[in-house]
Design brief:
The chain is α+β, with helices and mostly antiparallel strands. It has a single domain, classed as Alpha-Beta Plaits. The chain contains two helices and five strands; from the N terminus they run E-H-E-E-H-E-E. The protein has a five-stranded antiparallel β-sheet, with helices on one face.
Length: 90
C-alpha cells in the first residue's frame, strides 16, 4: 500500500496532480491518497512525478510517498530537504 501526501501551491498543477493520483487510488484527505500498489504502479507514479510534475514545482512544493509494503519513503520537491528517520510499526 502507498500513502501519497502532497503540498503544491499552484492550483492548476495541484488539481492536475490530484486527478492523476485519482486514477490509481482513493482520496483520504484533500492532499492524501491511498493506493493499492504494485512495483509497476509505484514506478509509474515516481516516473510521472520526475518527468512531468517535479520540474514545475516551486521551492515550497513537495510530494512524499510512503511505501508501507517495503517500509520506504520517496520524497520529491522540497520534501527532499526534510529527510529524517521514520519508524513504521506493524
Amino acid at each position: 500500500m502507498l500513502i501519497i501526501s502532497y503540498d503544491i501551491t499552484n492550483d492548476k498543477l495541484r488539481t492536475k496532480f490530484s486527478r492523476y493520483l485519482k486514477k490509481y487510488g482513493r482520496r483520504l484527505q484533500f492532499s492524501v491518497y491511498e493506493i493499492e500498489n504494485s512495483e509497476r504502479i509505484l514506478k509509474n507514479i515516481m516516473a510521472e512525478i520526475r518527468n512531468d510534475f517535479e520540474k514545475k514545482f516551486t521551492k515550497a512544493d513537495s510530494v512524499i510517498i510512503f511505501d508501507l509494503n517495503h517500509k520506504e519513503i520517496h520524497r520529491f520537491g522540497y520534501a527532499i530537504n526534510e529527510e529524517s528517520d521514520l519508524v513504521i510499526f506493524e
